[in-house]
Design a protein that fits this description.
Strand content: 15-25%
Distance between the termini: 26 Å
Order of helices and strands: EEEHHHHHEHEHEHEEEHEEHEEEEEHH
Radius of gyration: 20 Å
Bound molecules: 5-S-methyl-1-O-phosphono-5-thio-D-ribulose
Number of strands: 16
Shape: globular
Oligomer: single chain
Strand order of the largest sheet: 6-5-4-7-10-15-16
Largest sheet: 7 strands, mixed
Helix content: 40-55%
Length: 371
């Protein structure tokens, strides 16, 4: 299994996604500041992976703190939360994870836990978030694979695999993996995904590693592939989904959705419930990250554009819900009208929760699976 991010005794261990596919390098992050920087610099990227890593970053801050009182640690913890929240703006999983860690903190305080136990409680919650992410991806993959015909030619965008999550299956790529496990014959068209090349570097790497048949294309080839009848469905992930089903995802997703509609191809979004932001009515309110110009003007550190040219680099776009055939979550598949189907799924109990016996802990750690 690809281990995107891991909690270790020394710190948070992450695979450096900037170096893939040529080098498989792991970094040990030892402070919340290093964790926040790794998220900002896209050493770790992908919405669920960002959430899990941020939770570990907060746990790390708490573990390493030399605060002598709970009150002192509380001030530090809140500063860590604010630091993490500034790392990247679009993926709501980041804010979801921070809020969950804040709730764990509040619960530990409510129980009047002494400092060492309070620390353990918060660390355990980060581990719960990690474990649940992996379980959630299996459930999403299982639901999503039922939508995949046999044989199927699937177009993907960005990286939605193990690298975009805590590890294991991934979101949209998890559906591909599950379809393969079910014996379906799939072929994946991998969009290179300019400017950061998550498709060419990361998705291609994951698929090759598992010998899943795949063909790399540049982003501007997608329309022609559809025109030639080579695509049966499009599978993408999401960084935030508004209450009406509008989807924020990697820049270029909107173009694919329009192309898919024009060609009568189903366009599926695969994302965990933690990617839903039902507090936002529609996509126009989702903050879109603008990233540095150098990601557009340079490839692998080499300039490809004349110096001084003005550059735009929005990292995400919004796909209006009318282009989305279905949204696959760990709790099932939502179809239009999304305001109803998404809120019904959000209201269901958390299927990633551990069995009751496992959750009946002594009170020295948060119940695993609490949300
Ligand atoms: O800028 P990135 O690489 O973090 O963007 C990632 C994506 O847009 C993914 O498609 C998204 O996070 C969903 S997949 C888990």
């Amino acid at each position: 299994m690809i281990k995107t991010v891991e909690w270790t005794d020394e710190g948070v261990r992450v695979i450096d996604q900037r170096k893939l596919p040529h080098e498989e390098v792991y970094l040990l992050l030892r402070t919340p500041e290093e964790v926040a920087e790794a998220i900002r610099a896209m050493i770790v990227r992908g919405a669920p992976a960002i959430g899990v890593t941020a939770a570990f970053g907060l746990a790390l801050g708490v573990k390493r703190s030399s605060a002598l009182t709970v009150e002192e640690l509380e001030t530090e913890f809140e500063a860590f939360c604010q630091l993490m929240a500034r790392a990247r703006p679009t993926a709501v999983n980041l804010f979801w994870a921070i809020e969950r860690m804040r709730r764990a903190w509040a619960e530990a305080r409510r129980r009047n836990l002494p400092l060492p136990l309070l620390k353990e409680w918060v660390i355990q919650e980060a581990r719960n978030i990690y474990r649940e992410d992996i379980e959630t991806n299996w459930r999403m993959a299982h639901h999503g694979a039922t939508l995949i015909p046999d044989p199927a030619r699937i177009l993907t965008h960005c990286n939605t695999g193990a690298l975009a999550t805590a590890g294991g299956m991934g979101t949209a790529l998890g559906v591909v993996r599950a379809a393969v496990l079910m014996g379906k014959r799939v072929h994946v068209y991998v969009d290179e995904t300019r400017p950061f090349l998550q498709g060419a570097r990361l998705t291609a790497w994951e698929l090759l590693k598992e010998r899943i048949p795949a063909t790399l294309i540049t982003d501007n080839m997608a329309g022609y592939m559809m025109y030639r009848g080579l695509v049966d469905c499009v599978l993408v992930g999401a960084d935030r989904i508004a209450a009406n089903g509008d989807v924020a995802n990697k820049i270029g997703t909107y173009t694919l959705a329009i192309l898919a509609k024009e060609h009568g191809i189903p366009f599926y979004v695969v994302a965990p419930i933690s990617t839903l932001d039902l507090s936002i009515a529609s996509g126009e309110h989702i903050p879109i990250e603008e990233r540095p110009a150098i990601e557009v003007t340079h490839i692998n550190g080499r300039p490809i554009a004349p110096e001084g040219i003005a550059v735009a680099n929005p990292a995400f776009d919004i796909t209006p819900h009318r282009y989305v055939t279905a949204i696959v979550t760990e709790r099932g598949i939502a179809r239009p009208p999304y305001p109803e189907s998404l809120s019904a799924l959000a209201a269901q109990p958390d299927v990633a929760q551990a069995p009751a016996a496992e959750r009946a802990l002594s009170g020295d750690a948060p119940p695993s699976g609490s949300s």
